[in-house]
Amino acid sequence: MKRYEGLNQDIVDQLAPNPGRKPLLPSMSHRARVALLCRMLHREGWDEHIAGHITVRQEDGTILVNPWELAWDELTASDILRIDRDGKILEGEWNTTPAIGLHLQLHAHRPDIHVVIHNHPQWSGIWANLQRIPPVYDQTSALVDGELVLYDEYEGQFNDDATTMAAVKALGDAKWALLANHGALIVARDLRQAHLRAITLEWRCKRAWYMEALGKGVALPAEEVAKIGAADPNGFPFLFEAMARRELRADPTILD
Known about the structure:
256 residues, eight-stranded mixed beta sheet, globular, 13% strand
């Protein structure tokens, strides 16, 4: 079976009942995978108009990024830009976001990560505005373990080096963060892991909001969250592929 670059395929290969089965996803370019992730996350609530950016560092050190001008739900593969580590556009016809410095700083300071996602999601944005960390109330909210960092200083948009470096330092070596009065930040090793972290954060924030509204929620114990969060290193098996196929059924032109 063809391995998909940018995805941790080991867990899927191990659990596949038939090595000769039909591929779970069609073969696609690097740009197509980034455009597909934008579509997938837009459906999950990472959908604040034209705000937000996803960067994916390639093996040669260049970075793929969605353009500033387009919303995540209209992107296709040909819209994705390729930039160098300083933000210079190498390929593509659009512009990069003025906040690209946040991504460039993270890629420079975190060699362990290849994917950075920032947006102002619906539910995690509420908790960021509250400057509170949502409890974990159910199994799906616990699919990713580890500290959820709260960067509790709003210093404006990420348009200058000082502001971006403050956020990078606040994140430290964590997987994700809520940015006070701003939005959410995800970092990951590959696309599968980034997808799971992004959708888990939004689900966790949504469930916690409802539980607190009802006033009777019982949070999961930390030790149970740690057990369930074992899914995080590889991403939840087959979930990325299933959600990707849903987007491709809705709009096959994503790959163009």
